[in-house]
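Dear support,

Our group has been running a series of protein-ligand predictions, and this particular one with nickel (II) ion is the one our PI (initials K.S.) wants archived with full inputs and outputs. We had some confusion internally about which version of the output was final, so please treat the block below as the authoritative record. The input we submitted was:
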Amino acid sequence: MGDIAAISAGTGELQKKLVAIRRRLHQYPELAYEEMRTTQAIREWLAEAGIDVAEYPLKTGVVAEVKGREDGPIVALRADIDALPIQEETGLPYASTIPGRMHACGHDFHTAAIIGAAYLLKRREESLKGTVRLLFQPAEEKGTGALRVLESGALRGVQAIFGMHNKPDLPVGTVGVKAGALMAAVDGFKIEVEGVGTHAAVPNAGIDPIVAAAHIVTALQTIVSRNVGPLQSAVVSVTRIHSGTTWNVIPEKAVLEGTIRSFDERVRSEIKSRFERVVEGVSSGLGAKPAIRWYPGPPAVRNDEHLTELMIHAANKVGLRAVTPEPSPAGEDFAFYQRELPGSFVFVGTSGPHEWHHPAFDVNESALEPAARLFAEAAETALIRLSEGRDDHPNGL
Ligand code: NI
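Confirmed final output from the archive:
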């Protein structure tokens, strides 16, 4: 980076630098917990601006700080840094150089934007009312990176946290901001249905796990349609069935896998208990024995009302238009932070040509600098409000 002063003065230098950062990240995507090169690059970009890296026990990912008033509050800005096992098909000149690896969810965009916010905040550090902790989190795609960051102690003392996801279907210049549920809780399941194998021509001598599995799939469809309230929303999807080895043998076992998405903890636990009753009831009615394994993922992203209002305020201030987004049934491990402290997660409009995880996924890079300005503004405002100890919120926000 040439000069931090130029970067914050709106000369176009910041945008140019963020585009370069994003493209460099895009060329070298790394999977969850393997983000060694990415980690190194982020440290270097922060060091160029004199931003201190804080040492926490994390193998990949970076925690850094821009420090204003020493006894002031601490707020956090979070970006995720990992990529996906997808073969890129964008044909871009800066496409992935690593076969079968791609930044197909735009975490390169998030990382570049938060580095931009760090640059802007560094420039204003004298006037900051506290500390901004920058979290470059590994392994969002595994849904567990946030837990590692929490375990490392990097959230200690933090009173508010902000995060983003790019949103291909929102136009550049807009930001989707919403209090309450924004992204879904994610649960995975695996069911092993045990029957009794036999000759295909003599089914009465065995217990057919394929028939039981078929009934289970059908019966599971009643959970959303009959047990979840009509004004609530949830998804139950069976996405994989495995059974049998050949055409004339009734096998001993069928294995089903899938996922459940929900936006409310009560609905989430009700679905789980209905799910178990349906699987056990249908199986036992047909003589089969089921075993269910759960793979619980992050809870729903639920945004704090006051911080979300603050985000709208910040959006207006930097010239972005705040819109109310439709919640997404995808998951986000940012929700783990929100279990510990108030946070607001927003969708930054990137006018993308494809949905997340598509092999030709892309972002419109002109959204980079506005996103950086939005997060710098939000952090600065949160520090002001927290240090003033506004009394209309338990945390001062
Ligand atoms: Ni993502």
